[in-house]
Amino acid sequence: MSTAAIKVTNLYRYFGPLKAVNGISFEIPHGSVCGFVGANGAGKTTTMRILASLDYPTMGSAEICGINVVHHPEEVRKLIGWMPDHFGNYEHMTVVEYLDFYARAFGFSGKERRDRVREVMEFTDLVTLADRFSNKLSKGMTQRLCLGRALLHDPQVLIMDEPAAGLDPKARVELKHLIRVLAQEGKTIFISSHILSELGEMCDSLLFVNGGRIVHHGDAEALKQGTDSMGGMLFDVQLLGAPQTLSDWCAVHPHVEFLESRKTGGRIRIESTDLDRAAEVLSRMIKDGLQVVEFHKEQRNLEDAFIDMLGRIDRGEGALPTAPASTSTEIVP
Ligand code: ATP
User: Fold this and answer.
1) Stated pTM of the model
2) Within 13 Å, how many C-alpha atoms sit on residue 208's CB side?
3) pLDDT for 256-276, tens place per residue?
4) Which of 74, 145, 222, 234 can pair with 298 through a Cys bridge, CB separation 3.0 to 4.6 Å?
5) What pLDDT, in 10s, does the model give residues 97-142?
6) CB under 8 Å, gap of 24 or more: what pairs does 85-88 form?
7) Fold exhibited by the domain 233-297
8) What burial class does residue 12 get, using C-beta atoms within 10 Å of its C-beta: 0-12 exposed, 13-18 middle, 19+ buried?
9) Numbers of helices and strands, H then E, in the chain
10) CATH number for region 6-224
11) Could you tell me the distance, in angstroms and rounded to a whole number, from the CA of residue 21 to the centre of ligand 1?
């Protein structure tokens, strides 16, 4: 399969004067998990609803497995499983009746329909709740039911809008496990969340959106390994001997700044984004007689990386210096 599982090209969605989605383009390859991140009102739900063929773009195109969502919505709906951020369930309908109702709507009948409902209930651990009224479930159970509904027709692509919102830690772990299993089965998963650390663990790539524009598309590791807001790298250095030797050394070396002492060393900042430069600094320290026993680059958490990125946008600064070739960063003033 050569075409991307999800391909969005110059997509716009205006609500009157409001540019909810303002010219975004991105591709998600088959079998990968992509996290969609942005502040409230950034345009995530609007984008996802267009991909799910529930809304029309003002301009631009969106495709699922090469099929245009506007021109062929019926085809697209066969390929996607949609988990909205809010979903209604029906009073006086049990879990099994609810899933059976949707299985009929997907066109399954007879044994095949009963098998699909059973398989989905087993996968989402709803078997023991089969006869429970669907409007009397906890939030975690409700999300599992919603996921089950989205999986009935075994879609290739799953679009999940804030599936973990409002879940307690145990329910979040369970949901994360189900998403991991689906990813291992080769499904393409596009998932929005405000819980960045969780997305980082689960996703092959993260798509950051702000004010209807994509500001970064890259892997979580690259963001964590990123630079500080001034384009420098931070290192923790541990030594045998007094931390003073490290601060004295930094004082006479340009482009290396001593930031703070630690019990057996300190934090330094190297004014570069190039790891070769870091290797040179380490090598020079050792040649100069510093007994370095540990030298490691500090990782930022994803929240810091995101806030940092938004700060750059507010200041109208250029692209992030560390975005690797496979990722893209567009800074929009
Ligand atoms: P959240 O994280 O809060 O769910 P979001 O990133 O999903 O936010 P959207 O729901 O896509 O954001 O909304 C983007 C902007 O478009 C918001 O300002 C929202 O108020 C507006 N908007 C969304 N749908 C409509 C609509 N049908 N009519 C008018 N404005 C809308």
Assistant:
1) 0.80
2) 27
3) 999 888 888 999 999 988 889
4) 234
5) 999 999 999 999 999 999 999 999 999 999 999 999 998 898 889 9
6) 85/45, 85/161, 85/162, 85/165, 87/142, 87/146
7) Alpha-Beta Plaits (3.30.70)
8) middle
9) 11, 14
10) 3.40.50.300
11) 9
